[in-house]
Amino acid sequence: MRILAFLIVILAPVLAFPRLGLHEGYTRLVFDLDRQTQYQISQAPDTLTLRFSGMTAAASDTDVSSPQVASYQVVPAPNSATVFVRLRPNVEVKTTLLTDGNRRRLVVDVVSVVRPSQNPPQPPSRSEPPKPRTQPKIVVIDAGHGGIDPGAVGLVVEKEVTLDLALRLRQLLEKEGIEVILTRSTDTHLSPDKATDLGLRAEMAHSKRNLFISIHVNSAPSPAQGIETYYFGHTIDPSLLAQVIRENGGGELGRRLTREAQSVGERLVSDLIAQSNLKFSRQLAHLVQGAMLQATGAVDRGVRQAPFYVIRNARIPAILVEVGFANHPEEGRRLQTSEYRQALAEALARGILRFLNGG
Ligand SMILES: [Zn+2]
To answer: For 138-356, CATH number?
Structure first.
């Protein structure tokens, strides 16, 4: 009986998932779906990610070696599957959903895009600037708080220190050829409503960027000092929650946004892409934390996970740094000085560059 069952499985028609077609100028991937299958598509510069739920698929890792697609990988999970399509440079993705009764086909065409430089040769022009060979890396720097929200107030005001550090860090990274996007470059809030404000900052951590860093200054009711770096995650540590609630807007709002972020944390446990992104965020956190400690000799409060709202949905490596305590008599005074801030900014830049250059 066992042999018979085995044969039936072998003989059952198995459709490849996806079906692959190589054409002049494009590569076509066709995903056959049932009516109940849901899917989500997201695209980073070199990877197209398709998440299917309500279906099963076999694991595979297939070299395609077409001019548009390097390979694709199918990663199954219970009742779902994720497909990573490694894209070659200079392609565009077009998707179409075809419905035929209960059957549906998702057609993904990866099409070569002809860049202006690949057009028939033009007469040489001396004034033409050289084209950069690779895309610059893009880093988003979030100077915590701003405008109506001062953040922690002690010997320094958090919103002033975070902005100053962000501006210093921008200059250091731009010198290294990195494109920098600031969530704010002046003393301003993004919205008078704190939830909207944090939401707008968080939205800047989308997949077209390479890295997100949110800069903060700590404060504590009892004397505390030192530096800590966070990446996103669930926490049940009550001492940590008080700080998280404060950074998430404080009061009832802070508690609500923390609950929301906590529930995202619980969902992430079963999300493969989020898990792999968290691994990178942790790596980034360790590099940045290490660089800051080395530069300042400050107390090491460690790399930790906590449900900060501003990094809850990041699809790129994202961290939140607490560079010191505004109300500590010594650390607060150090944070007042330009030398200490420059040392911190240089350490942040070193950690980020190490990460972007592969650790
Ligand atoms: Zn803060």
So the answer is: 3.40.630.40
